[in-house]
Amino acid sequence: MSSYADRLAALREELARRRLDGFVVPLTDEHMSEYVGAYAQRLAWLTGFQGSAGSAVVLPEDAAIFTDGRYTLQVREQVDGAHWQYQSVPETSIAAWLEQHAPQGGRIGYDPWLHTRGWVRSAKQALADKGAELVEVDTNPIDAVWPDHPAPSDARLIVQPDAVAGKSAAAKRQEIADWLAEKGADAAVLSALDSIAWAFNVRGADVSRTPVALAFALVHADGTAELFVDEEKVGEDVRRHLGNGVRVQPKAMFAQALGGLGGKTVAVDPERAVAAIFSALDQAGATIRAERDPTILPKAIKNAVEVAGHKAAQARDGAALCRFLHWLSMEAPKGGETELSAAAKLQQFREATGALRDLSFDSISAAGPHAAIPHYRVDEASNLPIKRDEIYLIDSGGQYQDGTTDVTRTVIVGTPKPEMRDRFTRVLKGHIALATALFPAGTRGSQLDSFARQYLWAAGLDYTHGTGHGVGSFLSVHEGPQRISPVGSSQSGGDEPLRAGMLLSNEPGYYKSGDYGIRIENLVLVVEMPVPGAEKKVLGFETLTLAPIDRALIEPTLLSPHERAWLDDYHAQVRALIGPQLEGEAAEWLSRATAPLAA
Protein backbone atom coordinates (compact mmCIF):
# COMPACT_ATOMS: atom_id res chain seq x y z
CA MET A 1 0.00 0.00 0.00
CA SER A 2 1.56 3.22 -1.18
CA SER A 3 0.33 5.58 1.53
CA TYR A 4 -0.82 5.65 5.13
CA ALA A 5 -4.20 6.87 3.87
CA ASP A 6 -4.47 3.66 1.83
CA ARG A 7 -3.63 1.58 4.89
CA LEU A 8 -6.26 3.35 6.98
CA ALA A 9 -8.84 2.80 4.24
CA ALA A 10 -7.91 -0.90 3.98
CA LEU A 11 -8.32 -1.35 7.73
CA ARG A 12 -11.74 0.30 7.64
CA GLU A 13 -12.80 -2.07 4.87
CA GLU A 14 -11.60 -5.05 6.91
CA LEU A 15 -13.47 -3.82 9.99
CA ALA A 16 -16.65 -3.41 7.96
CA ARG A 17 -16.21 -6.96 6.65
CA ARG A 18 -16.01 -8.17 10.26
CA ARG A 19 -19.05 -6.07 11.22
CA LEU A 20 -16.94 -3.92 13.55
CA ASP A 21 -17.47 -0.17 13.94
CA GLY A 22 -13.98 0.49 15.21
CA PHE A 23 -10.71 -0.98 16.42
CA VAL A 24 -8.12 -0.06 19.05
CA VAL A 25 -4.45 -0.19 18.04
CA PRO A 26 -1.90 -0.18 20.90
CA LEU A 27 1.86 -0.04 20.48
CA THR A 28 2.78 -3.23 22.30
CA ASP A 29 2.94 -6.99 21.88
CA GLU A 30 1.46 -9.99 23.68
CA HIS A 31 3.99 -9.41 26.48
CA MET A 32 3.00 -5.75 27.11
CA SER A 33 6.49 -4.73 25.99
CA GLU A 34 7.56 -1.12 25.56
CA TYR A 35 9.86 -1.96 22.65
CA VAL A 36 8.47 -4.56 20.26
CA GLY A 37 9.63 -6.68 17.37
CA ALA A 38 8.92 -5.69 13.77
CA TYR A 39 5.96 -8.09 13.59
CA ALA A 40 4.19 -6.11 16.36
CA GLN A 41 4.79 -2.61 14.95
CA ARG A 42 1.16 -2.28 13.92
CA LEU A 43 0.79 1.32 15.02
CA ALA A 44 3.83 2.43 13.02
CA TRP A 45 2.65 0.55 9.93
CA LEU A 46 -0.80 2.08 10.13
CA THR A 47 0.04 5.68 11.03
CA GLY A 48 3.75 6.34 10.42
CA PHE A 49 4.37 7.16 14.09
CA GLN A 50 7.87 6.04 15.13
CA GLY A 51 7.75 6.77 18.87
CA SER A 52 7.99 4.08 21.54
CA ALA A 53 4.68 4.82 23.29
CA GLY A 54 1.29 5.50 21.78
CA SER A 55 -2.00 4.04 20.63
CA ALA A 56 -4.78 4.74 18.17
CA VAL A 57 -8.48 4.23 17.57
CA VAL A 58 -10.06 3.84 14.14
CA LEU A 59 -13.80 4.44 13.59
CA PRO A 60 -15.66 4.56 10.26
CA GLU A 61 -15.32 8.34 9.98
CA ASP A 62 -12.92 9.36 12.76
CA ALA A 63 -9.45 8.23 13.80
CA ALA A 64 -7.30 9.40 16.69
CA ILE A 65 -3.73 8.83 17.83
CA PHE A 66 -2.83 9.10 21.51
CA THR A 67 0.64 10.12 22.73
CA ASP A 68 2.10 11.74 25.83
CA GLY A 69 4.08 14.96 26.18
CA ARG A 70 7.31 13.38 24.98
CA TYR A 71 5.87 13.06 21.48
CA THR A 72 3.79 16.24 21.08
CA LEU A 73 6.01 17.52 18.27
CA GLN A 74 7.07 14.18 16.83
CA VAL A 75 3.56 12.84 16.28
CA ARG A 76 2.66 15.95 14.28
CA GLU A 77 5.72 15.52 12.09
CA GLN A 78 5.09 11.85 11.39
CA VAL A 79 1.30 11.40 11.38
CA ASP A 80 -0.99 13.14 8.88
CA GLY A 81 -3.41 15.44 10.71
CA ALA A 82 -5.78 15.28 7.74
CA HIS A 83 -6.62 11.69 8.73
CA TRP A 84 -5.79 11.54 12.44
CA GLN A 85 -6.83 13.59 15.46
CA TYR A 86 -3.95 14.22 17.88
CA GLN A 87 -4.86 13.34 21.46
CA SER A 88 -2.67 14.04 24.49
CA VAL A 89 -2.31 11.58 27.37
CA PRO A 90 -2.99 11.78 30.32
CA GLU A 91 -5.31 14.71 29.58
CA THR A 92 -7.53 12.22 27.78
CA SER A 93 -7.62 8.46 27.23
CA ILE A 94 -8.87 5.96 24.69
CA ALA A 95 -11.82 5.11 26.94
CA ALA A 96 -12.79 8.77 27.35
CA TRP A 97 -12.45 9.42 23.62
CA LEU A 98 -14.54 6.38 22.72
CA GLU A 99 -17.21 7.46 25.17
CA GLN A 100 -17.54 10.66 23.14
CA HIS A 101 -17.01 9.37 19.60
CA ALA A 102 -18.11 5.72 19.38
CA PRO A 103 -21.38 5.30 17.47
CA GLN A 104 -24.47 4.49 19.50
CA GLY A 105 -24.79 0.71 19.62
CA GLY A 106 -21.41 0.32 17.90
CA ARG A 107 -19.10 -2.69 18.10
CA ILE A 108 -15.49 -1.69 18.87
CA GLY A 109 -12.92 -4.42 18.38
CA TYR A 110 -9.81 -5.14 20.43
CA ASP A 111 -7.11 -7.81 20.42
CA PRO A 112 -7.13 -9.51 23.87
CA TRP A 113 -3.44 -10.38 23.47
CA LEU A 114 -2.52 -6.67 23.35
CA HIS A 115 -4.40 -5.19 26.31
CA THR A 116 -4.52 -5.65 30.07
CA ARG A 117 -7.62 -6.83 31.87
CA GLY A 118 -7.87 -3.45 33.60
CA TRP A 119 -7.94 -1.63 30.27
CA VAL A 120 -10.65 -3.95 28.98
CA ARG A 121 -12.80 -3.25 32.02
CA SER A 122 -12.47 0.53 31.73
CA ALA A 123 -13.11 0.51 27.99
CA LYS A 124 -16.16 -1.74 28.38
CA GLN A 125 -17.60 0.59 31.00
CA ALA A 126 -17.00 3.68 28.88
CA LEU A 127 -18.66 2.07 25.86
CA ALA A 128 -21.56 0.73 27.91
CA ASP A 129 -22.30 4.29 28.97
CA LYS A 130 -22.58 5.09 25.25
CA GLY A 131 -24.68 2.04 24.44
CA ALA A 132 -21.75 0.53 22.54
CA GLU A 133 -19.90 -2.78 22.95
CA LEU A 134 -16.25 -3.84 23.22
CA VAL A 135 -15.70 -6.93 21.07
CA GLU A 136 -12.83 -9.41 21.36
CA VAL A 137 -11.33 -10.41 18.01
CA ASP A 138 -9.88 -13.84 17.27
CA THR A 139 -7.23 -12.48 14.89
CA ASN A 140 -5.86 -8.96 14.56
CA PRO A 141 -7.47 -7.16 11.57
CA ILE A 142 -4.31 -5.14 10.90
CA ASP A 143 -2.42 -8.37 10.24
CA ALA A 144 -5.07 -9.24 7.66
CA VAL A 145 -4.42 -6.09 5.60
CA TRP A 146 -0.65 -5.84 6.15
CA PRO A 147 0.63 -7.49 2.94
CA ASP A 148 4.31 -7.78 3.90
CA HIS A 149 3.72 -8.43 7.59
CA PRO A 150 7.07 -9.55 9.10
CA ALA A 151 7.26 -12.89 10.83
CA PRO A 152 8.39 -12.99 14.47
CA SER A 153 12.15 -13.27 14.90
CA ASP A 154 13.72 -16.73 14.81
CA ALA A 155 16.93 -15.66 16.62
CA ARG A 156 18.38 -18.24 18.99
CA LEU A 157 18.59 -17.80 22.74
CA ILE A 158 21.94 -17.30 24.43
CA VAL A 159 23.02 -18.04 27.99
CA GLN A 160 23.69 -15.22 30.45
CA PRO A 161 26.41 -16.88 32.55
CA ASP A 162 26.10 -17.01 36.34
CA ALA A 163 29.44 -15.22 36.55
CA VAL A 164 27.75 -12.16 35.00
CA ALA A 165 24.24 -12.64 36.41
CA GLY A 166 25.48 -13.05 39.97
CA LYS A 167 22.89 -15.71 40.77
CA SER A 168 21.95 -18.99 39.09
CA ALA A 169 18.63 -19.49 37.34
CA ALA A 170 17.89 -22.40 39.66
CA ALA A 171 18.33 -20.13 42.68
CA LYS A 172 16.02 -17.56 41.13
CA ARG A 173 13.37 -20.19 40.45
CA GLN A 174 13.62 -21.38 44.03
CA GLU A 175 13.07 -17.84 45.26
CA ILE A 176 9.94 -17.64 43.10
CA ALA A 177 8.82 -21.00 44.53
CA ASP A 178 9.32 -19.68 48.07
CA TRP A 179 7.29 -16.60 47.13
CA LEU A 180 4.50 -18.82 45.79
CA ALA A 181 4.44 -20.73 49.08
CA GLU A 182 4.02 -17.44 50.96
CA LYS A 183 1.15 -16.47 48.68
CA GLY A 184 -0.51 -19.88 48.84
CA ALA A 185 -0.28 -20.26 45.07
CA ASP A 186 0.63 -23.23 42.87
CA ALA A 187 2.18 -21.41 39.92
CA ALA A 188 3.15 -17.99 38.61
CA VAL A 189 2.72 -16.75 35.06
CA LEU A 190 5.70 -14.83 33.68
CA SER A 191 4.78 -12.98 30.51
CA ALA A 192 7.09 -9.93 30.50
CA LEU A 193 10.07 -10.70 28.28
CA ASP A 194 12.70 -9.16 30.54
CA SER A 195 11.28 -11.06 33.53
CA ILE A 196 11.69 -14.34 31.67
CA ALA A 197 15.19 -13.43 30.51
CA TRP A 198 16.21 -12.55 34.07
CA ALA A 199 14.56 -15.54 35.76
CA PHE A 200 16.11 -18.11 33.41
CA ASN A 201 19.44 -16.31 32.85
CA VAL A 202 18.95 -16.29 29.09
CA ARG A 203 18.97 -13.50 26.55
CA GLY A 204 17.78 -13.22 22.95
CA ALA A 205 17.61 -11.01 19.89
CA ASP A 206 13.91 -10.94 19.08
CA VAL A 207 13.37 -7.26 19.89
CA SER A 208 15.58 -4.57 18.41
CA ARG A 209 17.86 -3.01 21.05
CA THR A 210 16.53 -5.21 23.88
CA PRO A 211 18.21 -8.61 24.37
CA VAL A 212 15.12 -10.72 25.04
CA ALA A 213 13.44 -13.72 23.43
CA LEU A 214 9.74 -14.09 22.63
CA ALA A 215 8.54 -16.53 25.28
CA PHE A 216 6.11 -17.20 28.11
CA ALA A 217 6.82 -19.13 31.31
CA LEU A 218 5.11 -20.90 34.17
CA VAL A 219 7.05 -21.34 37.41
CA HIS A 220 5.64 -23.88 39.82
CA ALA A 221 5.69 -24.08 43.59
CA ASP A 222 8.21 -26.93 43.52
CA GLY A 223 10.76 -24.76 41.69
CA THR A 224 10.29 -26.41 38.31
CA ALA A 225 9.20 -24.38 35.31
CA GLU A 226 7.88 -24.55 31.79
CA LEU A 227 9.40 -22.24 29.18
CA PHE A 228 7.22 -21.69 26.12
CA VAL A 229 9.46 -20.68 23.22
CA ASP A 230 9.81 -21.82 19.65
CA GLU A 231 12.00 -24.90 20.01
CA GLU A 232 14.23 -24.17 17.03
CA LYS A 233 15.45 -21.13 18.96
CA VAL A 234 16.84 -23.28 21.77
CA GLY A 235 20.24 -24.86 21.18
CA GLU A 236 21.86 -27.64 23.19
CA ASP A 237 23.92 -25.12 25.18
CA VAL A 238 20.75 -23.41 26.38
CA ARG A 239 19.06 -26.75 27.15
CA ARG A 240 22.06 -27.81 29.26
CA HIS A 241 21.98 -24.44 31.00
CA LEU A 242 18.27 -24.72 31.80
CA GLY A 243 18.67 -28.26 33.17
CA ASN A 244 16.09 -30.86 34.07
CA GLY A 245 14.05 -28.43 36.13
CA VAL A 246 12.84 -26.56 33.06
CA ARG A 247 10.63 -28.13 30.42
CA VAL A 248 10.86 -26.37 27.03
CA GLN A 249 7.60 -26.36 25.05
CA PRO A 250 6.50 -24.64 21.83
CA LYS A 251 5.30 -21.09 22.36
CA ALA A 252 2.02 -21.96 20.66
CA MET A 253 1.28 -24.40 23.50
CA PHE A 254 1.11 -21.65 26.14
CA ALA A 255 -2.63 -21.00 25.90
CA GLN A 256 -3.30 -24.75 26.09
CA ALA A 257 -1.09 -25.01 29.18
CA LEU A 258 -3.11 -22.26 30.85
CA GLY A 259 -6.19 -24.34 30.14
CA GLY A 260 -4.64 -27.19 32.11
CA LEU A 261 -4.40 -25.18 35.34
CA GLY A 262 -7.99 -25.78 36.40
CA GLY A 263 -8.27 -26.15 40.17
CA LYS A 264 -4.89 -24.48 40.68
CA THR A 265 -4.19 -21.11 42.29
CA VAL A 266 -2.20 -19.05 39.81
CA ALA A 267 -0.41 -15.76 40.45
CA VAL A 268 -0.73 -13.33 37.54
CA ASP A 269 0.47 -9.73 37.25
CA PRO A 270 -2.47 -7.56 36.13
CA GLU A 271 -0.12 -4.84 34.85
CA ARG A 272 2.06 -7.11 32.73
CA ALA A 273 -0.19 -9.99 31.67
CA VAL A 274 -2.65 -9.50 28.83
CA ALA A 275 -6.40 -10.00 29.10
CA ALA A 276 -6.22 -13.24 27.08
CA ILE A 277 -4.19 -14.89 29.84
CA PHE A 278 -6.80 -14.06 32.47
CA SER A 279 -9.59 -15.27 30.16
CA ALA A 280 -7.84 -18.61 29.58
CA LEU A 281 -7.36 -19.15 33.30
CA ASP A 282 -10.97 -18.16 34.05
CA GLN A 283 -12.27 -20.60 31.45
CA ALA A 284 -10.05 -23.35 32.88
CA GLY A 285 -11.49 -22.84 36.35
CA ALA A 286 -8.23 -21.68 37.94
CA THR A 287 -8.21 -19.42 40.97
CA ILE A 288 -6.42 -16.25 39.93
CA ARG A 289 -4.37 -14.32 42.43
CA ALA A 290 -3.52 -10.82 41.16
CA GLU A 291 0.06 -10.25 42.29
CA ARG A 292 2.99 -8.29 40.96
CA ASP A 293 5.39 -10.42 38.91
CA PRO A 294 7.75 -11.90 41.54
CA THR A 295 10.85 -11.09 39.48
CA ILE A 296 10.21 -7.34 39.27
CA LEU A 297 11.79 -6.23 42.53
CA PRO A 298 14.71 -8.72 42.60
CA LYS A 299 15.51 -7.76 39.00
CA ALA A 300 15.49 -4.06 39.87
CA ILE A 301 17.76 -4.45 42.90
CA LYS A 302 21.12 -5.26 41.37
CA ASN A 303 23.37 -7.72 43.20
CA ALA A 304 27.06 -7.04 43.79
CA VAL A 305 28.10 -8.87 40.60
CA GLU A 306 25.62 -6.89 38.50
CA VAL A 307 26.77 -3.60 40.06
CA ALA A 308 30.39 -4.43 39.27
CA GLY A 309 29.39 -5.32 35.72
CA HIS A 310 27.54 -2.03 35.30
CA LYS A 311 30.57 -0.08 36.46
CA ALA A 312 32.80 -1.93 34.01
CA ALA A 313 30.32 -1.29 31.20
CA GLN A 314 30.11 2.39 32.11
CA ALA A 315 33.88 2.79 32.02
CA ARG A 316 34.08 1.06 28.63
CA ASP A 317 31.13 2.96 27.22
CA GLY A 318 32.36 6.24 28.65
CA ALA A 319 35.65 5.90 26.80
CA ALA A 320 33.79 5.29 23.53
CA LEU A 321 31.59 8.33 24.15
CA CYS A 322 34.62 10.49 24.97
CA ARG A 323 36.32 9.43 21.74
CA PHE A 324 33.15 10.46 19.94
CA LEU A 325 32.89 13.82 21.71
CA HIS A 326 36.52 14.52 20.85
CA TRP A 327 35.84 13.61 17.21
CA LEU A 328 32.75 15.81 17.21
CA SER A 329 34.69 18.75 18.62
CA MET A 330 37.12 18.46 15.70
CA GLU A 331 34.76 17.65 12.83
CA ALA A 332 31.46 19.39 13.56
CA PRO A 333 32.87 22.95 13.28
CA LYS A 334 34.12 22.13 9.78
CA GLY A 335 30.59 21.44 8.55
CA GLY A 336 29.50 18.40 6.61
CA GLU A 337 28.39 16.28 9.56
CA THR A 338 24.73 15.37 10.04
CA GLU A 339 22.54 13.74 12.66
CA LEU A 340 22.88 10.40 10.89
CA SER A 341 26.64 10.60 10.32
CA ALA A 342 27.23 11.52 13.96
CA ALA A 343 25.06 8.67 15.25
CA ALA A 344 26.89 6.23 12.96
CA LYS A 345 30.27 7.48 14.18
CA LEU A 346 29.31 7.02 17.83
CA GLN A 347 28.17 3.48 17.07
CA GLN A 348 31.54 2.81 15.44
CA PHE A 349 33.34 3.92 18.59
CA ARG A 350 31.16 1.62 20.69
CA GLU A 351 31.68 -1.28 18.30
CA ALA A 352 35.44 -0.72 18.51
CA THR A 353 35.32 -1.78 22.17
CA GLY A 354 34.81 -5.34 20.92
CA ALA A 355 32.17 -5.87 23.62
CA LEU A 356 29.09 -4.17 22.17
CA ARG A 357 26.16 -6.55 21.64
CA ASP A 358 23.73 -3.90 20.39
CA LEU A 359 22.69 -0.33 21.03
CA SER A 360 20.32 -0.05 23.98
CA PHE A 361 17.92 2.07 21.87
CA ASP A 362 18.01 3.97 18.61
CA SER A 363 20.27 6.95 19.27
CA ILE A 364 18.53 10.30 19.61
CA SER A 365 20.91 12.32 17.45
CA ALA A 366 19.35 15.77 17.31
CA ALA A 367 20.66 19.02 15.86
CA GLY A 368 19.20 22.49 16.37
CA PRO A 369 15.39 22.42 16.48
CA HIS A 370 15.27 18.61 16.53
CA ALA A 371 16.91 18.68 19.97
CA ALA A 372 13.65 20.22 21.21
CA ILE A 373 11.90 16.88 20.48
CA PRO A 374 12.73 14.76 23.56
CA HIS A 375 12.38 11.39 21.81
CA TYR A 376 13.32 12.44 18.29
CA ARG A 377 14.31 9.64 15.91
CA VAL A 378 16.40 10.61 12.90
CA ASP A 379 15.89 9.06 9.48
CA GLU A 380 16.92 9.93 5.94
CA ALA A 381 13.92 12.21 5.51
CA SER A 382 14.43 14.19 8.72
CA ASN A 383 18.26 14.22 8.79
CA LEU A 384 19.61 17.72 9.58
CA PRO A 385 23.16 19.04 9.27
CA ILE A 386 25.02 19.90 12.47
CA LYS A 387 25.58 23.64 12.21
CA ARG A 388 27.80 26.15 13.96
CA ASP A 389 26.34 28.07 16.90
CA GLU A 390 23.61 25.46 17.32
CA ILE A 391 23.10 22.91 20.03
CA TYR A 392 23.59 19.22 19.27
CA LEU A 393 22.05 16.61 21.62
CA ILE A 394 23.01 12.95 21.60
CA ASP A 395 21.08 10.50 23.80
CA SER A 396 22.45 7.00 23.32
CA GLY A 397 23.49 3.79 24.98
CA GLY A 398 24.99 0.36 24.53
CA GLN A 399 24.07 -3.20 25.40
CA TYR A 400 27.03 -5.08 26.87
CA GLN A 401 26.86 -8.50 28.49
CA ASP A 402 27.85 -6.94 31.81
CA GLY A 403 25.60 -3.88 31.67
CA THR A 404 23.24 -1.57 29.82
CA THR A 405 24.14 2.10 29.38
CA ASP A 406 22.09 5.24 28.68
CA VAL A 407 23.66 8.69 28.56
CA THR A 408 22.77 12.09 27.12
CA ARG A 409 25.20 14.89 26.38
CA THR A 410 24.31 18.30 24.97
CA VAL A 411 27.08 20.30 23.30
CA ILE A 412 27.39 23.60 21.52
CA VAL A 413 29.10 23.70 18.15
CA GLY A 414 30.55 27.19 18.17
CA THR A 415 29.27 29.92 20.48
CA PRO A 416 26.11 29.58 22.61
CA LYS A 417 23.54 32.31 23.09
CA PRO A 418 23.24 33.67 26.64
CA GLU A 419 19.78 32.10 26.91
CA MET A 420 21.22 28.69 26.04
CA ARG A 421 23.82 29.02 28.80
CA ASP A 422 21.16 30.08 31.29
CA ARG A 423 18.87 27.15 30.46
CA PHE A 424 21.71 24.63 30.35
CA THR A 425 22.97 25.76 33.73
CA ARG A 426 19.50 25.51 35.27
CA VAL A 427 19.25 21.96 33.96
CA LEU A 428 22.71 21.23 35.36
CA LYS A 429 21.76 22.65 38.76
CA GLY A 430 18.75 20.34 38.85
CA HIS A 431 20.88 17.40 37.78
CA ILE A 432 23.32 18.12 40.61
CA ALA A 433 20.51 18.59 43.14
CA LEU A 434 19.22 15.11 42.38
CA ALA A 435 22.70 13.56 42.17
CA THR A 436 23.55 14.85 45.66
CA ALA A 437 20.16 14.26 47.30
CA LEU A 438 20.03 12.41 50.61
CA PHE A 439 16.72 10.83 51.55
CA PRO A 440 15.37 8.37 54.14
CA ALA A 441 14.64 4.78 53.22
CA GLY A 442 11.09 4.52 51.96
CA THR A 443 11.31 7.66 49.83
CA ARG A 444 9.61 7.36 46.47
CA GLY A 445 10.81 8.62 43.12
CA SER A 446 7.86 10.99 42.89
CA GLN A 447 9.09 12.75 46.02
CA LEU A 448 12.46 13.46 44.41
CA ASP A 449 11.28 14.60 40.99
CA SER A 450 10.96 18.28 41.92
CA PHE A 451 14.60 18.36 43.09
CA ALA A 452 15.59 18.35 39.42
CA ARG A 453 12.94 20.84 38.27
CA GLN A 454 13.25 23.55 40.92
CA TYR A 455 15.69 25.86 39.08
CA LEU A 456 13.65 25.67 35.89
CA TRP A 457 10.45 26.27 37.84
CA ALA A 458 12.00 29.37 39.39
CA ALA A 459 12.24 30.84 35.87
CA GLY A 460 8.77 29.68 34.83
CA LEU A 461 10.15 26.71 32.84
CA ASP A 462 9.67 22.93 32.92
CA TYR A 463 9.96 19.74 30.85
CA THR A 464 7.31 17.19 29.93
CA HIS A 465 9.07 13.89 30.57
CA GLY A 466 9.98 12.06 33.74
CA THR A 467 13.32 12.77 35.39
CA GLY A 468 14.48 9.19 35.75
CA HIS A 469 13.73 5.58 34.79
CA GLY A 470 15.13 2.26 35.92
CA VAL A 471 17.71 0.43 33.81
CA GLY A 472 18.30 -3.31 33.46
CA SER A 473 21.41 -5.49 33.49
CA PHE A 474 21.94 -6.40 29.82
CA LEU A 475 18.18 -6.03 29.56
CA SER A 476 15.69 -3.26 28.94
CA VAL A 477 17.00 0.30 29.03
CA HIS A 478 13.64 1.21 30.61
CA GLU A 479 13.03 -1.05 33.60
CA GLY A 480 10.54 -0.71 36.44
CA PRO A 481 9.27 -0.47 39.02
CA GLN A 482 11.42 2.49 40.10
CA ARG A 483 10.96 5.87 38.45
CA ILE A 484 11.62 9.50 39.23
CA SER A 485 8.62 11.32 37.82
CA PRO A 486 5.59 13.31 38.94
CA VAL A 487 2.70 11.38 40.42
CA GLY A 488 -0.04 11.03 37.85
CA SER A 489 2.25 11.52 34.86
CA SER A 490 1.98 9.10 31.97
CA GLN A 491 5.34 7.66 33.07
CA SER A 492 4.51 7.75 36.75
CA GLY A 493 5.36 4.50 38.49
CA GLY A 494 6.96 7.01 40.82
CA ASP A 495 5.31 5.60 43.93
CA GLU A 496 7.83 2.74 44.27
CA PRO A 497 10.15 3.22 47.25
CA LEU A 498 13.77 3.46 46.14
CA ARG A 499 16.07 0.77 47.50
CA ALA A 500 19.82 0.33 47.58
CA GLY A 501 20.93 -1.46 44.42
CA MET A 502 18.39 0.15 42.12
CA LEU A 503 19.78 1.77 38.98
CA LEU A 504 18.11 4.86 37.54
CA SER A 505 18.71 7.68 35.12
CA ASN A 506 19.07 11.31 36.22
CA GLU A 507 17.98 13.29 33.15
CA PRO A 508 16.37 16.70 33.56
CA GLY A 509 16.02 18.77 30.40
CA TYR A 510 14.66 21.89 28.76
CA TYR A 511 13.14 22.18 25.28
CA LYS A 512 12.42 25.36 23.33
CA SER A 513 10.15 24.30 20.49
CA GLY A 514 11.59 24.97 17.05
CA ASP A 515 14.91 26.21 18.41
CA TYR A 516 16.95 23.93 20.69
CA GLY A 517 16.80 21.34 23.42
CA ILE A 518 18.95 20.41 26.42
CA ARG A 519 19.25 17.23 28.46
CA ILE A 520 21.96 16.02 30.82
CA GLU A 521 21.66 12.33 31.64
CA ASN A 522 23.78 10.11 33.84
CA LEU A 523 22.94 6.74 35.35
CA VAL A 524 22.96 6.62 39.13
CA LEU A 525 22.97 3.77 41.65
CA VAL A 526 20.96 3.98 44.87
CA VAL A 527 23.36 3.39 47.76
CA GLU A 528 23.28 3.63 51.56
CA MET A 529 24.90 6.84 52.81
CA PRO A 530 26.68 7.22 56.16
CA VAL A 531 25.03 10.17 57.93
CA PRO A 532 26.20 10.75 61.53
CA GLY A 533 23.30 10.91 63.94
CA ALA A 534 20.73 9.68 61.42
CA GLU A 535 17.73 8.06 63.07
CA LYS A 536 16.92 5.83 60.12
CA LYS A 537 18.68 4.48 57.07
CA VAL A 538 19.70 7.22 54.63
CA LEU A 539 20.02 6.65 50.89
CA GLY A 540 21.62 8.63 48.12
CA PHE A 541 22.99 8.22 44.62
CA GLU A 542 26.35 7.17 43.23
CA THR A 543 26.86 8.50 39.70
CA LEU A 544 28.10 5.78 37.34
CA THR A 545 28.17 7.47 33.91
CA LEU A 546 31.54 8.88 32.91
CA ALA A 547 31.68 11.64 30.27
CA PRO A 548 32.37 15.39 30.34
CA ILE A 549 29.55 17.92 30.66
CA ASP A 550 30.06 20.74 28.14
CA ARG A 551 31.67 23.58 30.08
CA ALA A 552 31.07 26.02 27.19
CA LEU A 553 27.34 25.86 27.92
CA ILE A 554 27.70 26.62 31.63
CA GLU A 555 27.16 30.06 33.13
CA PRO A 556 29.48 29.84 36.17
CA THR A 557 27.87 32.74 38.02
CA LEU A 558 24.65 30.72 38.37
CA LEU A 559 26.41 27.87 40.20
CA SER A 560 26.83 27.77 43.95
CA PRO A 561 30.18 26.76 45.50
CA HIS A 562 28.65 23.36 46.29
CA GLU A 563 27.57 22.88 42.66
CA ARG A 564 30.94 23.96 41.29
CA ALA A 565 32.65 21.52 43.64
CA TRP A 566 30.39 18.69 42.49
CA LEU A 567 31.11 19.43 38.82
CA ASP A 568 34.86 19.65 39.36
CA ASP A 569 34.87 16.45 41.42
CA TYR A 570 32.80 14.65 38.79
CA HIS A 571 35.11 15.77 36.01
CA ALA A 572 38.12 14.68 38.05
CA GLN A 573 36.57 11.22 38.34
CA VAL A 574 35.95 11.12 34.57
CA ARG A 575 39.55 12.16 33.95
CA ALA A 576 40.89 9.53 36.34
CA LEU A 577 38.83 6.60 35.03
CA ILE A 578 38.57 7.43 31.33
CA GLY A 579 41.87 9.21 30.76
CA PRO A 580 44.02 6.04 30.92
CA GLN A 581 41.86 4.51 28.16
CA LEU A 582 42.54 7.37 25.72
CA GLU A 583 45.66 8.35 23.82
CA GLY A 584 47.09 11.32 21.99
CA GLU A 585 44.77 14.13 21.01
CA ALA A 586 41.76 12.45 22.56
CA ALA A 587 43.51 12.28 25.94
CA GLU A 588 44.55 15.91 25.63
CA TRP A 589 40.99 16.89 24.75
CA LEU A 590 39.66 15.04 27.80
CA SER A 591 42.06 16.92 30.07
CA ARG A 592 40.76 20.22 28.73
CA ALA A 593 37.12 19.12 28.82
CA THR A 594 37.36 18.04 32.46
CA ALA A 595 39.49 20.91 33.76
CA PRO A 596 38.16 22.73 36.84
CA LEU A 597 35.53 25.31 35.99
CA ALA A 598 37.00 28.79 35.71
CA ALA A 599 35.52 31.51 37.90
From TrEMBL:
Its EC number is 3.4.11.9. The keyword Phosphoprotein does not apply. Residues 310-528 form the Peptidase M24 domain. InterPro entries: Creatin/AminoP/Spt16_N, Creatinase/aminopeptidase-like, Creatinase_N, Pept_M24, Pept_M24B, Peptidase_M24_C, X-Pro_aminopeptidase_P. It comes from the Bacteria. It holds the Pfam family Creatinase_N_2. Residues 7-139 form the Creatinase N-terminal domain. The keyword Cytoplasm does not apply. SUPFAM superfamilies: Creatinase/aminopeptidase (SSF55920), Creatinase/prolidase N-terminal domain (SSF53092). GO terms for molecular function: aminopeptidase activity. Residues 538-597 form the Peptidase M24 C-terminal domain. Keywords: Aminopeptidase, Hydrolase, Metal-binding, Protease. Belongs to the peptidase M24B family. This is Xaa-Pro aminopeptidase. It comes from Sphingomonas vulcanisoli.
